């Protein structure tokens, strides 16, 4: 076999080293079921959704830690009604031993429910350091955001990265998911050109029903043109069946250049379930071999 022919697959597999997963506060039973399929020490993000209270989020972070994984609780700035609510949540994480890693995002509400306009405002409170946070994740949008201009997105990313660098924190960037590797790689080049050297976790949809994938893509403003869908491996005219990110990761591996793109890993949005995603990762690695 030609070694050069296997290089992209090998690189695509290497990108899965230290992959991370995402779950909601209500997914603890699913995590229990998937535990044997997920490598110990895997970072698992716990989302900050409307309709879930702090108790649910704290319990989920505790479960992640108890099962041998690294909890990364989300903090949604615009969903926080007060500084006291932020302190209450951080104090709960600190008491449970789950405050080391957090992911801070602006959040969905068009208007803040409290004093925090965006993730940077939370980072600048000084409360994260006070309650023992050591690592801060922030968001990135390779294909833009339907409600935020491109210039605002770049300013937010560079300002947040600078705030992390000025504090006693490590950090990384987790991107919104997409279906086309080309804009992701172009965005990575632009990120590094702007002096942001944080590791980047590329958001990837785990294997899921095509109808569900398209629904999430529409909801989050991700491009779903027919050409992009074909690159990813499904047709918008036939929404039956499931799709996994095989083609996406192979395409990413073909063009990924550590010297240009920096440290890159993969973050899975588990639309099709935690267990299905973790098992898919194992199968992808086997196929690549």
TrEMBL record:
Pathway stated in the Swiss-Prot or TrEMBL entry: One-carbon metabolism; tetrahydrofolate interconversion
Keywords recorded for this protein, A-Z: FAD, Flavoprotein, Oxidoreductase
InterPro entries noted in UniProt: FAD-linked_oxidoreductase-like, Mehydrof_redctse-like
Cofactor: FAD
Single GO MF annotation: methylenetetrahydrofolate reductase [NAD(P)H] activity
GO biological process per UniProt: methionine metabolic process; tetrahydrofolate interconversion
Family membership noted in the UniProt record: Belongs to the methylenetetrahydrofolate reductase family.
UniProt-recorded name of the protein: Methylenetetrahydrofolate reductase
């Amino acid at each position: 076999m030609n070694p050069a022919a296997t290089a992209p697959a090998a690189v695509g597999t290497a990108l899965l080293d230290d992959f991370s997963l995402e779950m909601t506060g209500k997914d603890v039973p699913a995590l229990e079921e998937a535990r044997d399929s997920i490598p110990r020490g895997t970072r698992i993000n716990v989302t900050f959704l409307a309709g879930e209270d702090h108790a649910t989020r704290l319990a989920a972070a505790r479960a992640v830690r108890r099962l041998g994984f690294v909890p990364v609780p989300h903090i949604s700035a615009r969903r926080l009604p007060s500084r006291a609510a932020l302190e209450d949540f951080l104090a709960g994480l600190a008491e449970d031993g789950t405050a080391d890693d957090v992911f801070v995002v602006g959040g969905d509400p068009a208007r803040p429910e409290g004093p925090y306009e965006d993730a940077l405002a939370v980072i600048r409170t000084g409360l994260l350091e006070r309650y023992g946070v050591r690592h801060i994740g922030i968001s990135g949008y390779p294909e833009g955001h339907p409600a935020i201009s491109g210039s605002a997105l770049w300013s937010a990313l560079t300002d947040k990265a600078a705030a992390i660098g000025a504090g006693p924190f490590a950090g990384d960037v987790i991107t919104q998911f997409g279906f086309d590797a080309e804009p992701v790689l172009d965005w990575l080049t632009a990120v590094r050109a702007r002096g942001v050297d944080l590791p980047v976790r590329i958001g990837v949809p785990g294997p899921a029903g095509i109808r569900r994938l398209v629904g999430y893509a529409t909801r989050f403003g991700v491009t779903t043109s027919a050409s992009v869908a074909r690159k990813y491996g499904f047709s918008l005219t036939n929404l039956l069946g499931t799709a996994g990110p095989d083609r996406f990761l192979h395409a990413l591996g073909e063009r990924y250049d550590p010297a240009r793109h920096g440290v890159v890993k993969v973050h899975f949005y588990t639309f099709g379930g935690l267990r299905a995603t973790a098992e898919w990762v194992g199968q992808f690695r086997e196929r690549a071999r």
